[in-house]
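Lecture 7 notes: from sequence to structure.
We start with the chain below.
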Amino acid sequence: MATRSTIMDTNSFRSDAGGELPWPTAQLVRRRERVLGPSYRLFYRRPVHLVRGEGAHLYDADGLQYLDVYNNVASVGHCHPRVVAAIAEQAAALNTHTRYLHDRVVQYSEDLLATMPDEIDQVMFMCTGSEANDLAVRVAQAATGGTGVIVSAEAYHGNSALTSQMSPALGTAQRLGLEVRTVPVPDPLRTGTDDPGAWFAARMAEAVADLERHGVKVAAFVADSIFSSDGVFPDPVGYLAPAVDVVRRAGGVFVADEVQPGFGRTGSEFWGFARHGVVPDLVTTGKPMGNGIPVSAMAARSDVLAAFGEQIPYFNTFGGNPVSIAAAQAVLAVIAEERLQERAARTGARFLDELRTLTADHPLIGDVRGVGLYIGVDVVTDRVSMAPSTQVALDLVEALRDRRVLTSVCGAGGNVLKLRPPLVFSDDDVDWFCAAFADALDDVLVPDRP
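Predicted structure tokens for the same chain:
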């Protein structure tokens, strides 16, 4: 029997699970199930019908207000007026593709590259992070002559035919590619090492060696630098660098998937990879780039991009269209003008401290870890074995949902609460979450529960 997807199925609604839904919700669920494909998922045992958003808050069809502690897509806040205005203005003027000249597309490219290391000097645009990672792997293969790809053990890098085969978080029903290898991430609760960098580099060397034993040269190591799907492992700072060195010595390149940690979310750096002191060969980004408008990018060292670009013309009809680029430009402006990176650092540090204080005496919370506005709460059966407790984690998510606080889970055991609110998350929002979480803990965390 196939293992379910940790990121798609663990916290999903199931119509056959029993339980009464309010009549309007039940009707909408039935209509949805009738017309949408069965691969789609809904969050929560009682799905939420949302109709409006503002900042870090969402509102349902009954006018009830929710706290969004999950949505990195609306990175600068739901329906930010600056982004909305930029979209409307450009849509009223022109929307076309990158085979015509357009100053806005070039200007944004210059502005985006200015946030990256000097070595990253060219960019290409798509609509989704899946497309960006798909292209990055093709570029890596052209540049290196290799075909092997290494990812973390619970990675998610997309849903195209290529990227789904390097996304173990989709579950075992989605087979990994024959030339894909996975590496575990150093987990402070369970790895048992005093040197995570050396430990991770050793696992990387084993993956490279296994590819080579099968006659496969490594092309790329693709990683989200906070390993969000694996359970949120951002620290210690720098532990990623030795593993990247292993890949480069084997002739491969490093692809930094910045869909999760990018655009200031870590607080300390604009891009997650910078915390580890590495300069990638390729950088991909997606969801938070346009605050909900479909736009993504693959940025690259020009020498790495050259082989692919000289052989294969690339065109994406909607990638880099002026309306999406207007949204992306507005996001950059808002991050800078509202000092959201600094806010992520300040608010995130307080959020982390409050959560650690709140959970210090709870025997089923093994760890609270994170950086900036990306935090994982590791729910365990006990603090001796540190075994994951999926059911308690899910009960906590549902208890929070009942208190109109929205989040979900990640990690191989589906036991880590994933807290990644919009960057406009405030001190009042921290207080709201912590009050709801304390109440949920009292309801759910019974020490002898399996």
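Points to note: The chain has two domains: 23-76+339-444, 81-337. The chain has a mean pLDDT of 93.
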